[in-house]
Amino acid sequence: MSPGASDATSTRRKANIAVIGAGWWSQGWHIPQLSRNKDRCNLVAIVDSSPHPHSTLNPDLESLEDLGAKYSCPVYSSIDGLLADGAVSAAMDGVIICTPHSTHHDIGVQFLEYGTKRANSGGGKPLHILMEKPMTTCVEEAKSLHELVSEYEKRGDGSFLINHSANYREQSKSAKDMVMSGKLGRIRLITATFSSPLTWLFDSPANKGWNEPDGKMLGNGFGWGQASHMLAWIYHVSNVTPSRVYCQMTHSTATGADVSHSATITCADGTVFSLSGTSLLPGYEHSKPPLGKRVGIEMFGTEGTLIYGGDDQNPTSGYLELRTANASNSGQVRDLGFHFENTETSGLGPESLMEFVTVCKGGRPYAGANSAVGLKAVQTIEAMYRSNASGKAEDIL
User: Fold this and answer.
1) H helix or E strand, kind and range, residue 106
2) CB under 8 Å to 60, separation ≥6 — which residues?
3) Residues 6+ apart with CB under 8 A from 12
4) Cis amide prior to 205 (ω within 30 degrees)
5) Pick from 197, 356, 223: which is nearest to 291 by CA?
6) How far apart are CA 183 and CA 146, in angstroms?
7) Is 323 exposed, middle or buried (0-12, 13-18, 19+ CB in 10 A)?
8) Residue 185 in contact with residue 306, Cβ under 8 Å?
9) In a 10 Å sphere around its CB, with 0-12 CB exposed, 13-18 middle and 19+ buried, how is residue 65 labelled?
């Protein structure tokens, strides 16, 4: 199902969406993109604990007061303040949680509890949640959130999506369909590489939120900052479950942040998954012309192989390919080009955000990145940090 496909079954009313967190990503992406999508949604609230949000990645962030005036919506200094405003909170169809990684669990729980309370009050509509990635930076919190979400969705209180934009693109959907149809047979080996031009981010002591551990994190850097993108794609498409991880990392001499990793992940069904990644690719993603991230994915099965890779700023740099023993079933899978993450600041937002708006309008969700995928990604990254510290393979917790 494409991001807007479920609109046909949704109501024609606009979705009312609140944004929690008014930092760099919200001000550069979520808030203006929702505001431009005037035919499909209303930006009904912005919440941030700071009256003047600050980010080393954008020194020109606007104040909470200025954001309220610019986007003609109420602003709040706390989630409690938003929920206490009955007129606004009762009208919400969805919330986007875009706050520091280590805060995701507690904020997610608060909205899940509110959504259930509202649903139980009689006549209350579902409350949907779009959470930034990674889902959490703590396995215990990820498990707790996944369990709560599972019950929440089972009751029909709302849907929970994670903003892994690559998972909602047509290439990802085609890849998953290929695996689910049995064209690969039983997957036995997965190899994945992910290289980002982000030395400027992880080598700067000023970027503490990206480089220094917070909360229950065992470390911080490229692992928590980038590896979840690739892991979420692999786990969504292949549906394998990690069971044991061996990993080695290298670190920035300036910040101590991890900047490269190489991991061997053993899965519950015996599949072996080789994962490597680094921030040491030269360039800058938002330069003109942009220099993109390099992605390489191969899934080898008993009946066929899936191949997908390229530069995520150059659609002509690669494509989705299937190879089987039967030549008539091999070759490029549709003319989709190469697209991975969608980080465009212009327009109405990535496919993940468009899908979330559709869900908030009453459409059926496409589970590109649900809480199960988020949990597997968190479990894997946490085990990678433990393995690097111990020097031995570590079981998934």
Assistant:
1) helix 104-120
2) none
3) none
4) no
5) 197
6) 30
7) middle
8) no
9) exposed
Instruction: List C-alpha distances in Å: 279 to 192, 259, 260.
Output: 15, 5, 7
| Residue ranges in the chain whose pLDDT is less than 70 | 1-12, 286-287, 327-332, 334
Per cent of the chain over pLDDT 70 is 94
According to DSSP, the β-strands at 394-395 and 242-251 are antiparallel
- Number of C-beta neighbours around residue 181 at 10 A: 8
Tokens 């303040």 identify what position? 81
pLDDT tens, residue by residue, 136-185: 999 999 999 999 999 999 999 999 999 999 999 999 999 999 999 999 99
The residue whose two tokens read 């069904």 is 269
- Taking a C-beta distance cutoff of 8 angstroms, is the pair 339, 169 a contact? yes
Core vs surface per residue 290-319: b (16+ CB within 10 A) or e: bbbbbbbbbbbbeebbbbbbbbbbeeeebb
* CA-to-CA dists, residue 341 to 229, 233, 291, 344, 362, angstroms: 8, 10, 13, 9, 26
Give the helix/strand (H/E) hosting 34: helix 31-36
Residue 119: CB atoms within 10 A of its CB come to 18
